[in-house]
Specification:
249 residues, alpha+beta, Glutaredoxin, 4 strands
């Protein structure tokens, strides 16, 4: 199978030239056999390309632009579809070619085939059918490579693990219950002590308040006595002045 790339050697469009160089350069990097067919200098190539590009792939004006890629007579696509296939590591599928062993596309195809059919792509014969001479274990086809012994051993370990977890759970529950009881007792002992402290603080506050009130009462009494004394002295002074005036007369 030969890959045909239709190009325009004398195109005046820089974009078309760049796209053509990208396609050719990538095919050379992959070492894919291809043939360049010039539509600028060969009218037959131009007509063949236009006639064999599917109608649904042609632009609105009906004239497809290069580069256009074919696998023999089969249409592969234009630059945009080629670029998408390159980004997705699906260039060989785009070209209709089997990917070389070890390539990213081959690895992806092998994984997809295992997921879908449970078989390895390299174990198929040339006709694409599963080679009967290569036996694939049923467990591996189903995606389960564990033997019965491994499964039984895993089940025993799981049972032992569950038993140990149950014992640990019971011990942990017992310790938790003891801790809760101790905390309740401690809380019960602390509550009366806190109440006693609160009562003592209240008594102290009451005593301080009473002492302060008594001091204020004593101060008020002293002030009253002082005022009375001052009034008495004023009255005596006034009386003395009246007597002096009377005597003077």
């Amino acid at each position: 199978m030969v890959i045909k790339v239709f190009l325009a050697s004398s195109s005046g469009s820089t974009a078309i030239k760049k796209k053509q160089q990208d396609v050719v350069g990538f095919l050379e990097a992959l070492k894919v056999d291809y043939a360049q067919l010039d539509i600028a200098c060969n009218e037959e190539n131009r007509m063949w390309m236009r006639q064999n590009v599917p109608e649904e792939k042609k632009p609105a004006n009906g004239i497809p632009l290069p580069p256009q890629i074919f696998n023999e007579e089969s249409y592969c696509g234009d630059y945009d579809t080629f670029f998408d296939a390159k980004e997705d590591n699906l260039v060989y599928s785009f070209l209709g070619l089997p990917p070389p062993p070890g390539s990213k596309e081959a690895v992806q195809a092998d994984k997809a085939d295992i997921v879908e059919n449970g078989t390895h792509a390299e174990e198929t014969n040339a006709e694409g059918n599963l080679d009967d001479s290569i036996e694939v274990p049923v467990e591996e086809r189903n995606g389960d490579a564990h033997s019965k012994e491994e499964l039984a051993q895993a089940a025993d370990e799981e049972d032992e693990g569950e038993g140990g977890e149950e014992e640990e759970g019971e011990v942990a529950e017992g310790e938790t219950a003891d801790d809760e009881a101790t905390e309740e007792e401690t809380a019960g002992d602390e509550a009366p002590a806190e109440e006693e402290e609160a009562v003592e603080e209240t008594d102290e506050v009451t005593e301080d308040t009473q002492a302060h009130a008594e001091e204020e009462e004593e101060q008020e009494e002293a002030d009253d006595d002082r005022e009375e004394e001052e009034l008495r002295q004023l009255e005596e002074e006034e009386e003395a002045e009246v007597q002096e005036e009377e005597e003077a007369e």
